[in-house]
Every structure is written in C-alpha cells, then in structure tokens.
Specification:
heterodimer; A: about 240 residues; alpha+beta; Immunoglobulin-like; 8-stranded antiparallel sheet; 8 strands; about 35% helix; about 20% strand; elongated; B: about 190 residues; mainly alpha; Rna Polymerase Sigma Factor, Chain: A; 10 helices; about 0% strand; sigma factor activity (chain B); DNA binding (chain B); transcription (chain B)
Amino acid sequence: MTKINLSDTEWEQAWEYTLGTLPYDERMQFVLRMERSSELRSAVLFLEEKMSPLLESVEPVDVPDSVWRVIQQEIAKEQTSQAVQPQASEVGRLKGMLTNLWLWRVSTGFAVALLAMMLMFEGQTSSPTEGEPFVVLVTPERYQPGLILRTQNSQSGVLKALTHLPEPENSVMELWTKADSWEKPISLGTLGSDRQQEIRADAFNSVEENQLFEITLEPPGGSPTGLPTGEILFIGRLTSGH
Amino acid sequence: MNSHNDSSSVFDYSACLCACARGERYAFHTLYQVEAPKIRGIILRIVGNPDLASDLTQDVFLKIWDKAHTFDAQRSRGRAWIHSVARHHALDEIRRRAQPLNQTSSEQVEELPSLVNDERILANLELNEATVNLSECLKRLETDRRTAIYMAFVEGHTHEEISKRMGTPLGTVKSWARRSLKFLRDCLK
C-alpha cells in the first residue's frame, strides 16, 4: 500500500464510510470532503479493495427484463440530447461509440481476408471488383464477417448475409450509417429475414470512403428515437476493394 | 454457488470497463449480462425490497456507463469498483430515506437467508485465492466483531441496528468498529 497520510480520526471516518454506517448527512459531508482530498479517496479505495471479497457471499438474483429495457431507453435519450448539443466531456464517448477506429483498423484486413476465403469456398464469383465500394459488416466481439453491403448506385445497395444471421424475437435488426463528418447516424431501415435484400436510401448518394455502417437490435418497427438504441450486432466501414 | 458466477471468474471486468469508457455498447451489454444479477443481489441484501433493488440496479448500470471513464485499472480491480458503486448507491438510498428498508417488510426479509453465518462466509472467502488474506485477517478477529463487520458491509446496517440485533450496547459496537479498523489496516497491508 502506498503511504496514506491521514490522522486516526480521518481513517475512522473513511472506515465508517466504507462500512456504510454513517447517517445520511455525515455520508454526504464525507463525500464532499473526499472530493477535495486525494488522501481520503486513497484510504477509501484501499479499504474497499480489501473488504470487497466479503461480497462473494452474496448470491446473484435474477433481474427482470424491464431493467435492461429502461437502461437502453435512458442511454438512447442521453445520446439523442448529445447528438443535438454534444457536451465537450462526452465527445469522446460519442466518437468511440460511432467511429470505433480501433475496431475497424484491427478488423478491416482480417474481415476482408475472411470474406475472400468465404466467397472462394462458397464458389461465388461475385466478389467485389477492384474499386467497387463495399462494406463487410463484422461482429464487434470476434470480427466474424456477417454480411456484405455493396453499393449499386446512388439510390441503393445490396445487403447479403455471409453467415447464419440471428433471428431475434420481439425485435428487429436495423441498418445505420454515419460518415465521419455527420453529427449523428441515419437509419437505412429495418432488415427482413431474406439472405439477400436491396436497401434503397438516398443516403447512398453521398457515401464516403471509410463511412461507418452498423446493424443494431431494435424494438419492433425500428428504433423509437431515430438513433441506435440496442446492441450492435455487426459493424464495418466502407472500402473500395483495393 | 449459483450458476450466475460461472462466467464472472474469468471475465475481464477492467477491460470491459475501459471499453465502456470508450462508449462501446456491446461491452456494456456484456457487462450487464455477466454482472447484473450479482449487483441486484448486493443491492437487495442492503435494501431488502425487490422492486427497489431493481430500480437501483438500473441506476447503478447507468452510473457505470456514465462514470466508466473514471475507473483506474492501475488502482483498483474492475469488479471491486463495480460492487463499490452498487453498494454505495444502495447505502445512499437507504440512508436518505432515514429508515432501514430491510426492516419495513418482515416477509421480504424472511425470504433472504441470513448471511451472518461465520462458516459460510469464511468458506466463500477461502474459495478464492485473492481473498485468503482477508479471510485470514477476519479469522483473527473475535466472532462478535467479525459479525458486526458483515452486518455493516454486506447488509448495510447502522451501528444502532447492529446494536439492537446483537443485543450489544451501542458504545461497544462502535468500539468494535474502531478496533477492527486498526487491526485490519495492519493485517491487510
């Protein structure tokens, strides 16, 4: 433990706070003092770390499904307000959420190589030609290619499944896109169950190299907020096949 | 042990919190799936009311999403940090209400098996190598002091409540707390 310079009385207050035995007003006073004192924060951190194994004895309890639904809604609301007027401190989060460059840099080469192999083994001849814009949408966790989106013209694209897609109950998959210069993503619509489907949207008129595409899980009928609210199932960026 | 814990032993909480700080919703959802039942269990143990425990679980995860960027993997373990957020949120709530909610409904409390069982708690601690140190230190405390620490830290009781439950004068309970701190500070270094 690094040296923590506190009096015995201050250690006792940190201990009582950590144990949770302080009355409400004293708790709040201590929190205020802790905000101003790195020594008090260090003492509480030390005590919390050391005592936390006691919580191993607490059994997990099933959580109602409604809890996650409300969390998703609250985060979606927060994102909507941020999209309108982003706070400086939250810009990093928005960027991280919508333009996960690290993910893409790691996944691009890997996903394209896998895509090439999959097309080859499936005996398909219609792999993207050099210079043809396309997006390989991969799973965010393992970078497994799930779909390929190829732009046909300024009004439409074709989305084709490369693997078995999830068939979510009571929810739908929704396709989104966002260029780096845009403030927020736009929806390209909800997806049906066909392995290949045409996506018609004016957004194809202005796609840019490296533009982000993602598919999220949304309530029936699509996102209630006009922004992604659910789990990201697939994500990828537009490339020109060279 | 509950099957909920199976994945938690190998899950990288710190990496997941860092991903949440970057705004990665998938990581946040995974964290929720792995840890929400435990969080609700911790909160329920303190507030004793299942509906309130659900509401507070929801608050805690929103807090984790908002505050993940303040987590410092160099200074604390991810899971301990998450549990601390949950425990203090529940404590703030019951202290704010100025009444121990886990005593307002005897029916709900009776559904929860008592945790103040020395053998069970020490056995739980010994299951995990990282907790052996705490286990050894707690074993060296007198049983009454150890029990008082459990009742405060895990079940969220005040000194007054512990005094009543254990039938021990309030001054004695407070004295136990002070002496336990001195002992544990030295023992856990």
